[in-house]
Specification:
Structural class: mainly alpha
Number of domains: 1
Radius of gyration: 24 Å
């Protein structure tokens, strides 16, 4: 595991100490690792939201989904 040393203002250190004292985290490193994980998940959520928005913006087809799939396969024989 890699070590990371950071400096922070006293007010931020007090915030970290308060979070650790609340009992959810073992120590400051545990708290900071959790913040990094949350940041990673946020990126994943943003990507997913963008894909959902793109799908919604593309509209709704009146065709039967099986017909749409058949057309896609017919256009690209390597797809199947």
């Amino acid at each position: 595991m890699t070590q990371l040393t950071i400096s922070m203002p006293d007010a931020l250190q007090e915030w970290v100490n308060t979070r650790v004292a609340q009992g959810r985290y073992v120590d400051a490193a545990d708290y900071l690792r959790d913040l990094v994980r949350l940041d990673q998940q946020s990126d994943d959520r943003l990507w997913l939201k963008a894909m959902i928005d793109e799908g919604l913006a593309s509209g709704v087809l009146d065709q039967d989904p099986r017909d749409v799939i058949a057309e896609i396969i017919a256009e690209d024989p390597d797809f199947a």
